[in-house]
Specification:
The protein is globular, with a radius of gyration of 23 Å. It contains 17 helices and 16 strands. By secondary structure, the protein is of the alpha/beta class. About 50% of the residues are buried.
Length: about 475
């Protein structure tokens, strides 16, 4: 008898909006075992699984889903970890809807299998069971690799090369590991205990980690190469962009990097328990429409703002943020000002922000991104109250490493130029990947770049004479 096709996905429980805006606890509560098995049972087990093609790290998706159906969760975890060192992270923050899930055959007539939620379920099951298994590690090769940055790209390279028997050391500039997972993504979307757990798993493979170590200041890349056989740079994109409009030097104007780092890494939301003060304004405007903008707006609500606005120059249809994050923000009361462009920030005599001046926009012809270009409407200027602005329009890599590494080719926006397939840079013995190459992108794309680089570094090291 043919299997009956179930086109409707099982939705994941989450905190109610009126409750969650009062706390920084995780919004999504995860699948129960019953829900996970029901959702996994929807998978058709395709002979040609297109979902794997959509995954930047090529997880055996039908394989781990079959394990859930059979109740063999431990084997399911092992299957994921064959190619993904951060399943609890990826299950929460990866845009599966644009990658693996968009390839799911069920999505052609109904809703695709909730691959990310099932990945999260297995990772959380492993944590709750307390039975994390360390995979078999290859015999030591005697080769030493330095990794700059402990974000998704760096941790992936560290994991893969450690399993291959290499001696791996990670250098992190901040006082906690995890990169953007720690300083950028809020607690209510990615609890920091989960990041710490994933990092500790990689350390359990023998990876050494040094924090408060600023490569380019503490030691240069060339200095590191005197002690190591290869270097991977995964330093992220920590240099914020501003709109370069009048008034951006007023008090109350933040980059999203500063605003989120104060809250997430430095625990500003728990002041005075943690000694990081953070302003709790009444009227907040967030510029931008990506996930970082949603994170900033939802953080401001939880810090007690009366009104929080997303000010975005295109329409809702063009928002680059994940639909799930947009819907969460809307449920929580964030106000979206679409087709609106800030042109001036206005302050009082004491130098504090009080208002924004904006223009209304309309959409014209598509630009290079394929989205319709916003065009100002003449005479549409208006003002809105704001005592804080968070600018979340993008980031570039910090210039410190390129400035202190002669011969390292850099792109127009300060990104390190690296081969897409291998991560090789213009300097022999130096690889790069993640946001330091692409600019701000997704966690899983950084991990994919890390996997590619790890394969090429391994090949290089095996051919390198001692």
């Amino acid at each position: 008898m043919a299997k009956q096709i179930d086109y409707k996905r099982r939705h994941m429980p989450k905190q109610e909006p009126f409750e969650r805006i009062k706390n920084f606890d995780e919004v999504a509560l995860g699948y129960t075992e019953k829900l996970a098995v029901e959702e996994a049972s929807r998978c058709l087990g395709c002979k040609k699984p297109f979902c794997i093609e959509g995954c930047p790290v090529a997880i055996d998706i039908p394989g781990f889903i079959k394990c859930i159906v059979e109740g063999d969760f431990a084997t399911g975890v092992k299957k994921i970890k064959e190619t993904n060192a951060l399943p609890a992270v990826c299950g929460r923050v990866c845009p599966q809807e644009d990658q693996c899930e968009i390839k799911c055959v069920l999505g052609k007539k109904g809703e695709p299998v909730s691959i990310g939620r099932l990945e999260r379920f297995l990772a959380d099951w492993e944590a709750a069971s307390g039975s994390t298994e360390t995979p078999e590690i290859a015999p030591p090769t005697g080769k030493r690799i330095a990794i700059v940055g402990s974000g998704p790209a760096g941790i992936t390279v560290a994991n893969d090369l450690a399993l291959l028997g290499h001696d791996v050391t990670v250098f992190e500039a901040l006082h906690d590991a995890g990169g953007v997972l720690t300083y950028g993504i809020p607690e209510f979307r990615l609890p920091k205990a989960i990041v710490k757990r994933e990092v500790e798993y990689v350390r359990s493979l023998g990876v050494k980690l040094y924090v408060d170590y600023i490569v380019g200041k503490t030691k240069t890349i060339d200095g590191i190469l005197k002690e190591f056989d290869a270097v991977f740079v995964g330093a992220g994109a920590g240099l914020p962009w501003f709109m370069e409009i009048p008034g951006e030097n007023l008090n109350g104007v933040y980059s999203a990097n500063e605003y989120l780092t104060r809250c997430n890494l430095m625990k500003g939301f728990r002041f005075p328990e943690y000694d990081t003060p953070i302003k709790r304004p009444s009227n907040v405007a967030v510029f931008g429409g990506g996930n970082v903008a949603m994170d900033s707006a939802r953080t401001a609500l939880r810090l007690g703002a009366d009104e929080v606005h997303i000010v975005y120059r295109r329409s809702r249809q063009e928002l680059p943020a994940r639909l799930e994050e947009v819907e969460n923000a809307e449920e929580e009361g964030v106000i979206f000002d679409f087709l609106t462009l800030p042109v001036r920030l206005i302050g009082n005599k004491q130098g504090w922000l009080t208002e924004l001046e904006c223009l209304k926009m309309e959409l014209g012809e598509p630009d290079d991104s394929g989205r319709r270009r916003p065009v100002p409407i003449e005479g549409s200027e208006f003002r809105m109250k704001a005592d804080a602005v968070v600018c979340a329009i993008g980031n570039s890599p910090n210039p410190l490493i390129p400035m202190t590494t002669p011969g390292l080719e850099v792109g127009r926006r300060g990104n390190i130029v690296a081969d897409e397939e291998t991560g090789r840079t213009s300097r022999n013995g130096i690889w790069a990947g993640g946001d330091v190459v692409t600019g701000a992108a997704t966690v899983i794309s950084a991990m994919g770049a890390g996997r590619n680089a790890a394969k090429d570094i391994h090949k290089y090291l095996l051919n390198k004479k001692s």
